[in-house]
Predict the structure.
Amino acid sequence: MIDYSFSYGDLEYFLLILIRVSAFVYVAPFFSIKGIPRLMKVGFSVLLSMMLYDVVPRESIVYSDVLGYAFLVAKEVFAGVTLGFSAQICILICTFSGHIVDMMTGLSMVSIMDPSSNQQVTITGALYQQVMMVILVITGMYRFLIRAIADSFIVIPVNGTVINSGKLLTVITEFLRDYVIIGFRITLPVFIIMFTMNIVLGVLAKVSPQLNMFAVGIQIKILVGLSIMFLTCGMLGSAADFIFSTMKTLMQEFAYGLQP
């Protein structure tokens, strides 16, 4: 016979699961897009938490008063935000690459509003980020994010979050190195050609000082930069694979950094 009883302790346990899932959805890429209504985010978090309630390993919850339970809530919020942030900073590599491209092509002075974050970003940075979001949906990478938050309850049980500051600091330091390397690898074709063009324009400015190389160079750099971006747009798929692979590794390392 199926037992449909739901005690007060079960409610407390369910709320802790809901808090971690909600914190992850609020920060993780694709799920945290500002264009998605908040009611849909809340409904998705509740639905996912209900599905996880009966399958996650059940751990005992021990606390003495309201402050004790508030401390448990804070740990679950930290776990969810940390896992979501580890995925979000990988997507920000595209924004970093776009800043480099705009700086080399002379478009860095132009900024637009990014609908996914409601922040001012450069044109190429917003373009790369939106393309990466489309690839994330097409490749089904969002399913990995859902599976990651579900598996986090196995690696980090409810009321089992431990902040290993030394390990987390090591992971962040290593990622910042990869952050710069991956960003420059994405923009390497544009960077090399623009750097070469700046050298050529500098030589021409010395050879023919009567020519206004500043006015001519801006137009040439924009045209050449856009042409190179168009010719190399097929490389974004390989860059997305590299970014998603880094995202998986980083989320795993962050989860182990919170493991008791």
Summary: The mean pLDDT is 84. The longest helix spans residues 66-105. Residues 57 and 68 are 21 Å apart (CA to CA).
